[in-house]
């Protein structure tokens, strides 16, 4: 990392923190209450809401994970998470937000008290605290620390995964604890803009590199069929430009629909399963919706959400497309990284085989075993020892299978090969990536501290707490939660978790279908008694556990769809027998202007139409 890169990096980080703290001065004043700290004084404008939503959402999990999955066989199909999110956001803007702002809630669990009862609110608050701190916070820190460590190593700066976790955690906690949501939103404005600009720059450089690369070094994307990939590699010519080569090399990966047997995104999941995490995430997840709850009016909130939906449409072009190009350009290096990752994991397990209770065996690729017979024999002997130890203790063994190539290295390779050497650009890209990670981390910390302060501390520990006390508790929570996250996050490097994507999605499945069912049912059925909400929230984790245990062949998206349908059916039946004397009326508890935005509605319809066109083009 040159001196120019280092200066750009430090100036960027200093600007983000400085602007965030400067714009949140009211959170330090004596009259600054809980609304100022937790909801930015309910004064956020549409452009700030839109950028902040994107910055809070896009992190290393998307840039690294999504570009990596695009480089694998999934290709453009992984873009469904983004394009379906655009439609979901439009739905949230007009179906959910009016109710949330009208009731004047601080947190999403608070809405359940208006519709069901206090117990339903408390159950959801506990669930969300578990997900936010135990899953989202630790997952975001870990997923962010990995690429930061790798990029810094590429630049000649050797730091451990643990140190990277603490650097990001302290940065985020610093301005969140000081300025609350307003600090987050203004920091997000800079980081979100830099994120999009950085993504565009990487995409442009990737297409340029593809256009001038020696065609003998290019690899066709491994998509639906290996034969099609081989044919497309042969079809590339020197006269083709970057775009022509891209389409030719990735022809069988530029499709949105995968077979129904696909373990990650079967086409059946597009019918229902993928909508569940999308609607939960964008409409009922505190660390995202907190930005919309801070809207200065209903119209501003709706315009901000639709603005974010429009930005979502371009995200795959600056994340997924570079991932595809990275595979075309750097597949041999991805193969080497996969071998290194496999061997490093083996060496760690072999060193701890006598003391570890984790019985992990290793399955190497046949081609690698043929090229490395001595190491393969060592692995076979280790596997035999571990299997015997597991059998003697009555335990099961887990399997680490060697990947053909490490797809998650796609983004790191692009940055290292295309941005290094361009003065200032590498520093800007690293700063933008770090900013994206810190934005998501700050959003989780702010949301978790809000739920604990409002739904738990103020409801059970100190019902007479003053505004100043609530803000103080929120700040303490930020410090406690970031310590927990930074301590736990490095532990996720253990192979038994099966990867960060699996870790996050699997645990959220215990909560998201039930929460979505309870909210949808509560809005459509106003006469069912409060007990229906309690049953719905408690039933889902049990159902999900049973399906995961006894039907492991069902992928997690379809598993969530089954849970949603069953929970809704049970709530409907319970609602027939347990009814309220009068339908629930959501009374207004806000001073905000609740006039909806006609312009946002028109733009929202346009977003839905464009999304449909994209699915038709890439069908």
Provide key terms for this protein:
619 residues, two-stranded parallel sheet, globular, 23 helices, 2 strands, Sodium/glucose cotransporter, 2 domains, mainly alpha, 71% helix
How would you sum up this structure, described in words?
- This protein has 23 helices and 2 strands.
- It has 2 domains: 3-335 and 408-508 and 579-583 and 594-617, Up-down Bundle (Sodium/glucose cotransporter); 344-399, no CATH class.
- The chain has a two-stranded parallel sheet with strand order 1-2.
- It has 619 residues and is mainly alpha-helical.
- Helix 1 (3-22) crosses helix 8, helix 7 packs across helix 18 (467-488) and helix 8 (161-212) packs across helix 13.
- The chain is globular and about 75 Å long.
- Helix content is 71%, strand content 1%.
């Amino acid at each position: 990392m040159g001196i120019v890169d280092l200066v750009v990096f430090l100036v960027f980080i200093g600007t983000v923190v400085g602007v965030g703290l400067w714009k949140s001065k009211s959170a330090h004043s004596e009259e600054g209450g809980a609304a100022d700290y937790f909801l930015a004084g309910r004064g956020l404008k549409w452009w700030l809401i839109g950028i902040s939503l994107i910055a809070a959402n896009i992190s290393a999990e998307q840039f690294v994970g999504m570009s990596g999955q695009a480089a694998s066989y999934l290709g453009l199909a992984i873009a469904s998470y983004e394009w379906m999110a655009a439609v979901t956001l439009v739905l949230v803007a007009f179906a959910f937000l009016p109710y949330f702002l009208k009731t004047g809630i601080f947190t999403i669990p608070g809405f359940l008290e208006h519709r069901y009862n206090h117990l339903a609110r408390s159950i959801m608050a506990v669930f969300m605290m578990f997900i936010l701190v135990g899953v989202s916070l630790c997952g975001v820190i870990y997923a962010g620390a990995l690429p930061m460590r790798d990029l810094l190593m590429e630049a000649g700066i050797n730091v451990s995964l643990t140190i990277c976790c603490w650097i990001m955690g302290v940065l985020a906690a610093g301005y969140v604890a000081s300025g609350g949501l307003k600090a987050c939103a203004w920091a997000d404005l800079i980081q979100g803009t830099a994120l999009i600009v950085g993504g565009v720059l990487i995409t442009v450089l990737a297409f340029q590199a593809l256009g001038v690369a020696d065609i003998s070094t290019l690899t066709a994307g491994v998509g639906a069929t290996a034969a099609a990939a081989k044919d497309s590699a042969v079809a590339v010519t020197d006269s083709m430009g970057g775009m022509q080569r891209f389409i030719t090399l990735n022809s069988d990966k530029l499709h949105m629909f995968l077979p129904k047997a696909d373990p990650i995104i079967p086409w059946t999941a597009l019918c229902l399963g993928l909508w569940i995490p999308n609607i939960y995430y964008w409409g009922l997840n505190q660390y995202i919706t907190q930005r919309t709850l801070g809207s200065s009016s209903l119209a501003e909130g709706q315009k901000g959400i639709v603005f974010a939906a429009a930005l979502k449409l371009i995200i795959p072009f600056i994340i997924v497309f570079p991932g595809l190009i990275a595979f075309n350009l750097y597949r041999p290096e991805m193969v080497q990284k996969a071998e290194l990752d496999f061997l490093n994991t083996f060496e760690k397990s072999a060193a701890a085989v006598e003391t570890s209770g984790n019985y992990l065996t290793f399955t190497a690729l046949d081609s690698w075993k043929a090229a490395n017979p001595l190491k393969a024999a060592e692995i076979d002997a280790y596997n035999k020892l571990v299997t015997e130890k597991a059998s003697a203790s009555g335990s099961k063994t887990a399997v680490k299978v060697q990947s053909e190539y490490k797809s998650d290295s796609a983004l790191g390779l692009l940055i290292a090969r295309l941005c290094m050497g361009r003065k200032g650009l590498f520093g800007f890209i690293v700063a933008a990536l770090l900013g994206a990670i810190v934005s998501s981390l700050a959003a989780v910390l702010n949301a978790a501290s809000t739920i604990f302060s409002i739904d738990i501390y103020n409801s059970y520990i100190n019902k007479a707490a003053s505004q100043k006390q609530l803000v103080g508790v929120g700040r303490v929570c930020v410090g406690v939660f970031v310590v927990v996250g930074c301590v736990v996050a490095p532990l996720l490097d253990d192979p038994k978790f099966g990867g960060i994507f699996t870790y996050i999605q699997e645990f959220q499945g215990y909560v998201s279908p039930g929460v979505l069912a309870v909210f949808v049912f509560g809005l459509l059925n106003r006469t069912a008694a409060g007990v229906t909400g309690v049953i719905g929230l408690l039933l889902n984790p049990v159902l999900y556990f049973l399906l995961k245990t006894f039907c492991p062949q069902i992928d997690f998206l379809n598993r969530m769809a089954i849970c949603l349908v069953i929970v809704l059916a049970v709530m409907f039946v319970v609602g027939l027998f347990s009814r309220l004397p009068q339908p629930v009326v959501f009374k207004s508890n806000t001073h905000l202007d609740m006039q909806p935005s006609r312009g946002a509605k028109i733009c929202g319809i346009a977003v839905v139409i464009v999304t449909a066109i994209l699915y038709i083009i890439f069908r």
